[in-house]
Specification:
Blueprint (H helix, E strand, L loop, with lengths): L4 E6 L2 H12 L11 E3 L12 E2 L1 H4 L9 H7 L4 E3 L3 H18 L3 E5 L2 E5 L10 H16 L3 E6 L2 H8 L7 E3 L5 H4 L13 H9 L5 H5 L3 H19 L9 H5 L3 E11 L2 H21 L2 E12 L4 E12 L2 H15 L5 E13 L8 H5 L1 H21 L16 E3 L1
Parallel strand pairs: 2-4, 7-8
Antiparallel strand pairs: 1-6, 1-7, 2-3, 5-6, 9-12, 9-13, 10-11, 10-12
Helix pairs in contact: 12-13
Length: about 400
């Protein structure tokens, strides 16, 4: 049978979880029922709206805009600071509950995940019946609501969960996209940011249907590989499976929050170089190599995106990690400002395990061996004299402006 995929998304997660905690602490006001937002300290780059209530939405307040702008739209707006410790605990509770229903869970952020419902299909009257049961139990157990999108493609399940909110179940199968998705504005398409929307508008592509029926070669000419990705998503093309194993597997990675948003690929490459060196050094320190590499992007408005690939052979090389990260970035970036970049590796194995080499690999082995010796020599110098004792010149002017997490 065809795959059946759920995308489960908490409605206004940060605001809902904060509201519930305040009520538990004795507050008489439910933030979800008044114009309210979750915001933070402007100096720490948290001076934007992280989440909003439905009443706040009526004032035109949207996620990602500066708090000061939101206050101008609604002077009576109530703001609460974020509590990421609370959010992590709530997220863990939800994912534990969902994993008990189906272990095939791929968590993609603190408040959303994919579930491969296919193995459970015979146990319920319909996928929608199971989704409705999950929504009811989440509300009864935890006090907040979720939206659930159902599809035979991950991207369509994601799109369906963003349909009318809150506390709703929606389907969007391939045979429904022409009716349910194509009439929507192109800005509604997953991974279509403001910059892409503006480019498409100049091409007179205003709806997802316009995009789906357009020439992919023209899109690639204007938006590079991201144009191809958008065209595929508009047509419901997405072969990605629910990957529960990488979320559970032990991995090594690093991410960096930037003092100023990255707006060019060249600036992103510089950040990725530093991250690749850090991740490579950690792999070598643990005597491990990685067969999978993933890239994380967080945009200025706090939307996130990730992209991963299986490597031809297990690696711990800074150069290969960097080149792969750049390729993943080029395939993923929607040309919106980026506030965080991360590299993570998974499917780890011991560096001493034998690896079967192709003819091409054997031809490159001499160069690879030199690179490995150089990487380990630099590791030794940094271990003895400090992390910044050896640094590429291209990183000198940027290092102090990055905040690693």
């Amino acid at each position: 049978m065809d795959s059946i995929i759920f995308h489960i998304d908490v409605n206004s997660a940060y605001l809902s979880w904060t509201a519930l905690q305040l009520l538990a602490d004795g507050s008489s006001t439910d933030l979800r029922r008044i114009p309210s937002i979750i915001g933070g300290d402007m100096e720490k780059r948290r001076g934007v709206v992280l989440a909003k209530s439905i009443p706040a939405k009526k004032y035109g307040i949207h996620t990602g805009e500066p708090v000061i702008h939101a206050m101008r739209k609604c002077p009576s707006l109530v703001m609460a600071p974020p509590d990421h410790t609370l959010y992590a605990r709530r997220s863990h509770e939800l994912m534990t509950y969902l994993s008990d229903i189906c272990p095939d869970i791929e968590q993609v952020s603190v408040d959303e995940c994919y579930m491969d419902f296919t193995p459970l299909a015979g146990r319920y009257a319909s996928p929608a019946a199971c989704a409705d049961k999950i929504r009811r139990e989440v509300l009864e157990r935890f006090g907040f609501t979720v939206n659930i999108g159902i599809s035979d493609r991950k991207v369509l399940a994601k799109m369906a969960s963003d349909f009318r909110k809150p506390d709703m179940t929606h389907t969007l199968f391939v045979n429904e996209i022409e009716k349910k998705m194509w009439p929507l504005p192109v800005s509604s398409l997953y991974m279509c940011g403001k910059s892409s929307e503006e480019t498409l508008r100049k091409l007179e592509i205003l709806t997802i249907g316009d995009l789906a029926r357009s020439n992919p070669a023209i899109l690639k000419a204007h938006l590079k590989s991201h144009g191809t990705l958008l065209w595929e998503y508009a047509n419901g093309i997405d072969a990605a499976a629910v990957l529960s194993e990488p979320a559970k597997a032990k991995g090594i990675g690093n991410s960096v929050t930037l003092a100023a948003d990255v707006v060019t690929s060249e600036a992103a490459y510089t950040v990725l170089l530093s991250l690749a060196e850090s991740v490579g050094a950690r792999l070598r320190a643990h005597n491990q190599k990685a067969l999978m590499e993933s890239l994380e992007i967080k945009y200025a408005d706090f939307r996130t995106a990730s992209h991963q690939t299986i490597l031809p052979a297990p690696v711990d090389s800074d150069r290969i990690l960097y080149e792969t990260a750049c390729k993943l970035f080029d395939e993923s970036w929607n040309h919106e400002p980026v506030r965080l970049l991360g590299i993570r590796t998974a499917k780890l194995c011991s560096a001493s395990e034998p690896v079967q080499l192709s003819l091409f690999d054997m031809q490159q082995s001499a160069s690879s061996e030199k690179q490995q010796k150089l990487d380990r020599a630099i590791d030794a110098i940094r271990k003895r004299f400090g992390e910044d004792s050896v640094m590429r010149g291209s990183l000198l002017e940027h290092k102090d402006g990055w905040k690693k997490r």
